[in-house]
Amino acid sequence: MPQDAALQLATVSVVDALARSLRERVLDGQYAPGSTMTEAEISAAYGVSRPTARSALAVLIHEGLLHREANKRTSVPRLSREDVEDLFLARTPLEVEVVRLLVERGAVPVSAASRAVTDLHELGQDATHGAFVEADLRFHQSLVDAVGSPRISRVYRMIRGEMHLCMVQTRQVLGRERIVAEHRAVLDAMSSGDAAEAVRRMRAHLTGARHSLQSLFP
Questions:
Q1: Are 86 and 124 in contact (CB under 8 A)?
Q2: Among 45-49, 117-121, 123-127, 147-151, whose mean pLDDT is lowest?
Q3: Quick one: residue 198, left, alpha or beta (phi over 0 = left, psi -120 to 50 = alpha)?
Q4: Domain check: are 96 and 141 in the same one?
Q5: In the chain, beta strands by DSSP E
Q6: Contact by Cβ (8 Å): 180, 115
Q7: Are 88 and 204 a contacting pair, CB within 8 Å?
Q8: CA dist list (Å): 39 to 10, 53, 67, 135
Q9: Together in a domain, 86 and 61
């Protein structure tokens, strides 16, 4: 039994490492929307077994980063206006409530949120999509996690991957300086204790992001 447990842990470790590598490549835009991948291709590229490749792909499918229909190849989803609308339908109420709670509790994570804003501002023009979006979403994640609710954090992380896919495209629409300015405006209002203004700014920020994303689709 101990030997079987050790073998199982080793297998899970390989699957996790493979899923992490594939996730980074998808979220960095190395796989274009609609591009496909197979267990055989992943197995050959990484030197892993096909069951391991299948398990890693299943992880990303669960996260919404890959899509697979019956008898078809796994592919990177092509987001639509409806997808964006639905994503922000889930995201906006959650983040607005997070902002309100943090201000009312006097628990604004100034240090973590400010670091994310600074990191975003200081990224070079040659930064990858992944680095840009990581700093962007880290600002939002720092606010969500500061609430201290495991369930809220879990719900947010469930849609974060799909948000990342959207934000890879948002970079081309909003621009870094606009996002930095809007993040700072939200944080300034929160730090001043003005819950109503902080909520207004966060809602405006997310509404602008939604509209910009939707403008990419016919």
A1: no
A2: 123-127
A3: alpha
A4: yes
A5: 36-37, 74-75
A6: no
A7: no
A8: 20, 5, 14, 31
A9: no
Amino acid at 15: V
> What pLDDT, on a 0 to 100 scale, did the predictor assign at position 130?
77
Looking at residue 53, what DSSP letter applies?
H
Q: What range defines the domain where residue 205 resides?
A: 81-214
* Residues 172 and 88 occupy one common structural domain: yes
Residues 65 and 102 both lie in one domain: no
How many Cβ atoms sit within 10 Å of the Cβ of residue 211? 13
Name which of 34-48, 128-142, 177-191 the model is least confident about.
Answer: 128-142
Clarify whether residues 35 and 86 are in a common domain: no
Q: Using CA atoms, how far apart are residues 186 and 19, in angstroms rounded to an integer?
A: 34
Residues 118, 24, single domain; the answer is no
In this predicted structure, the answer to whether residue 1 has a pLDDT above a threshold of 50 is no
pLDDT for 112: 96
Mean pLDDT in residue range 134-154: 95
| Residue type present at position 133 | V
How many separate domains does the chain show?
2
Using an 8 Å Cβ cutoff, are 68 and 104 in contact?
no
Phi/psi for 17 (5° steps) reads -65, -40
Domain end call among 17, 41, 75: 75
Which pLDDT does position 27 carry in this prediction? Answer: 87
CATH code of the domain in which 190 resides: 1.20.120.530
Residues in CB range of 48: below 8 A, 6 or more apart = 14, 18, 42
